[in-house]
Amino acid sequence: MTAQILNGERIALGIRKTVKQQLKQRARRDMRVPSLAVVLVGEDPASALYVRLKQRDCRLVGIDCHVYHLPASAREVEVRKLVERINADPKVDGILVQLPLPPHINDLNVLNEIEPRKDVDGVTPQNMGMLSLRHPAHRSCTPKGVMTLLEHTGVQLLGAHAVVIGASNHVGRPMGLELLLVGSTVTTAHKFTTNTQEISREADVLVAATGKAGLIQADWVKPGAVVIDVGIEQQPDGSLKGDVDFDAVVNIASWITPVPGGVGPMTRVSLLQNLMDSVNRAPA
Ligand code: NAD
């Protein structure tokens, strides 16, 4: 079997076109241009790259994006005060705090400061809580993007065994909750799981989110499984590798995402979708 490729670039392009149409309709009705505020603290090159890509995505569809860049030495209270100030700005529809924050800053304290209605990254305790209570509001962008990819496969998720490898706050955990929400039977594996390969082989839907390049080999995958690779690891030559050994697993799976060009573009376009939801819910 050779898997069908889930092309995140192409699917994201289609969604961006829809968002662009919505923005044109707003413009025709003289409604204001939506606005995203991004808070970036420090000089981490990967974070700076992700922020530039988000700015570009906004520019492509016609959303204003303002980046507030604080030095790595910024104190937690300064970051929290900035978020508070942006919360109060009626012209800002969405706020994204680029993670990770420098180690002296408590992520949770900062994220907790974001007004949940403007939390277009879906990372506040309020929005995570709503997802776990089966009333999702703003959904965390990477798991949301994965769910959109899964919809494109047409594969039945109700009753399917979904295995998520990785249990982080912003990827693995909300991913499991999203899959539960659509009626899958979910198993989560993480670095302390002793039989991850065995569990992985049971999956009808396998989502790998560890950041360990090439962890998922052909003998980790059940024939015909849908394999979603969230992982990104930069190699010494600058190329990007996922958690899945693509060349081997493509012969086993029914569907597979490439890295790059699979989950990454879907994460970014989910942010635009969340922003439009926020705009549409904003007081007129
Ligand atoms: P993280 O480091 O916070 O979490 C990694 C998780 O993987 C942990 O729960 C850990 O227990 C688990 N893990 C590590 N080694 C393991 C192993 N050998 N077996 C089983 N579990 C193992 O990382 P994260 O923020 O969740 O991100 C995971 C990966 O996804 C990273 O490569 C990150 O760059 C990538 N990522 C991609 C996107 C995207 O849009 N494509 C978005 C977010 C994160």
Mean pLDDT: 97
- Can you write the helix and strand succession as a string? EHEHEHEHHHEHEHEEEEHEH
Uncertain residue segments: none
The biggest beta sheet reads: 6 strands, parallel
Helical amount: 40-55%
Q: Overall 3D geometry?
A: globular
Number of helices: 10
Strand percentage: 15-25%
Q: State the end-to-end CA separation.
A: 53 Å
Bound molecules: nicotinamide-adenine-dinucleotide
What's the count of strands? 11
Gyration radius over CA: 19 Å
Give the neighbour order of strands across the main sheet.
1-11-8-7-5-6
Structural class: alpha/beta
Description:
With 284 residues, this protein is α/β, with parallel strands linked by helices. The chain has 10 helices and 11 strands. The protein has helices spanning 8-28, 45-61, 76-87, 107-111, 125-132, 141-153, 172-181, 196-200, 246-249, 263-281, and strands spanning 4-5, 35-41, 64-70, 94-97, 161-165, 185-189, 205-208, 226-229, 233-234, 240-241, 255-256. The chain has a 6-stranded parallel β-sheet. The protein has a 3-stranded parallel β-sheet with strand order 3-2-4, sandwiched between helices. Helix 7 links the parallel strand 5 (161-165) and strand 6 (185-189). The radius of gyration is 19 Å and the shape is globular. The termini are far apart. The structure holds nicotinamide-adenine-dinucleotide (NAD). Nicotinamide-adenine-dinucleotide binds next to helix 10.
